[in-house]
Amino acid sequence: MVVAPRLAALIEQLLGTALPLRLRAWDGSEAGPPGGPVLVVRHRRALRRLLFKPGEMGLARAWVAGELDVEGDLYAALDLLLAPVQAHHALPARQRLAVAGELLRLAGPVVPVPPPPPREEVRRRTGPLHSPRRDRAAISHHYDVGNAFYALVIGPSLVYSCAVWDEDTASLEDAQAAKLDLICRKLGLRPGQRLLDVGCGWGSLALHAARHYGVRAVGITLSAEQAALARERVARAGLADRVEIRVQDYRETADGPFDAIASVGMAEHVGADRYREYAERLLALLRPGGRLLNHQIARPPMADERAYRVDPFIDAYVFPDGELAPLGRTVGQLERAGFEVRDVESLREHYALTLRRWVRNLEDNWAEAVRLTSPGRARVWRLYMAASAVNFERGGIGVNQVLAVRPTATGTSVLPLRPRAWTERATGQDRSPDPARQAQPH
């Protein structure tokens, strides 16, 4: 039996369109258009996974287990596959049965139990969604996989969020430094101010703000591994008197007021049901006139928001319990909590560039990444980062920096008359007048 042509015909029925790329099956047979990337089905077990778990989850398990792969340009393969997969071509019931029967024949003898999922998959979740305990477990799954692995992938800056690029940017490190400085300028940081970094990661923003803007910074994270390395970095920099790193939930932070708060790549973990609580908590931690910089991935709005579902691959292998919201909802929730939203900047293309650099780092150091974690974990990160890059490039998701202010007693907040001057990478600090600060000794 020659497998590839039969399998290609099945895929075309499921997609509702011609096979967009070359296919190679485990018997060495090929089908589909020549040239370009090749989708490789290395083992018939991949089809068994689809029988027991149809759809994206079965495909995800096969990818993580190494039973599915792509030879050639992974981005091109994903770009070809994303549109037909997301179109979700629905088959009539009779055709679905025929496809399942053919899939069963190709899969060979199937035992009555499914193949076990890869060990990198989240197994058991306990507690209410987005409760502090469950959030800690979700964060640990993603971040507590070894600081050395992250340093390999995201680079020595240890900044795990969208960098800021321009035509003259020489390296990923330069782009990340530009992002950290942009945040500090948007927040208008000055010597002696208190900064809260919510979801501080390995402490890079807190270190940058203390070193270059003279602030006293508190960084909070739920990852014990992140906190341990962040504290080491603070000590090595000689900034232990100005930077404190805590393993702490934002809901447990109670030592405000802070002059400024940064939340970079953290709000995606909060959840729709908790977002108002998150916004209100940050508002309470800010002094009147203080600024919040909320840096968050967004998805497009849906005609029926109740139809939104978390991507099963991302939920099971990457960010358990993570949720994306449209930009409009985020801005609305911040405003309903009492913030005045002053500026919104999209960095969508910047994140695609950042992700491609991370993928390159991973691929260039593949053997070491596998040694530090596992083959499955390395495959998870490669797929999620490459697919995310394509999705950012296509506009399927975006990322935005929202600058908001806690109003003063008079309901006003003062920013520069032309606030977008901060994009010019001026070396001087924002020295706009701030009567609310002058009236708030601390």
Care to give the gist of this entry?
This protein is α/β, with parallel strands linked by helices and 442 residues long. It has 17 helices and eleven strands.
Features:
single chain, 442 residues, alpha/beta, Rossmann fold, seven-stranded mixed sheet, four-stranded mixed sheet, disordered C terminus, CMAS, CFA/CMAS
Describe this protein's structure.
- It is built from 17 helices and 11 strands.
- The chain is elongated.
- The chain has a 7-stranded mixed β-sheet, with helices on both faces. Strands 2-1-3-4 form a 4-stranded mixed β-sheet.
- By secondary structure, the chain is α/β, with parallel strands linked by helices.
- The protein folds into 2 domains: 3-107, Nonspecific Lipid-transfer Protein, Chain A, CATH 3.30.1050; 132-438, 3-Layer(aba) Sandwich (Rossmann fold).
- It has helices at residues 3-15, 45-52, 56-64, 74-87, 93-107, 132-143, 147-154, 172-187, 204-213, 224-236, 275-285, 312-318, 327-337, 348-364, 366-372, 375-394, 435-438; strands spanning 22-24, 30-31, 38-41, 68-71, 194-198, 216-221, 243-247, 258-264, 286-298, 340-346, 398-405.
- Helix 1 (3-15) runs antiparallel to helix 5 (93-107) and helix 8 (172-187) crosses helix 9.
CATH topology title of the largest domain: Rossmann fold
CATH architecture of the largest domain: 3-Layer(aba) Sandwich
Counting structural domains, the number is 2
Mean pLDDT metric: 91
The main β sheet shows up as:
7 strands, mixed
Overall number of strands = 11
Major sheet: arrangement of strands: 7-6-5-8-9-11-10
Cα Rg: 24 Å
Shape: elongated
Order of helices and strands: HEEEHHEHHHHHEHEHEEHEHHEHHHEH
Strand content: 5-15%
CATH superfamily of the largest domain: Vaccinia Virus protein VP39
Query: Percent range for helical residues?
Result: 40-55%
Stretches with pLDDT under 50, minimum 5 residues: 426-442
End-to-end Cα distance, whole Å, is 78 Å
Question: What is the CATH level 1 assignment of the largest domain?
Answer: Alpha Beta
Total number of helical segments?
17
Secondary-structure-derived class = alpha/beta
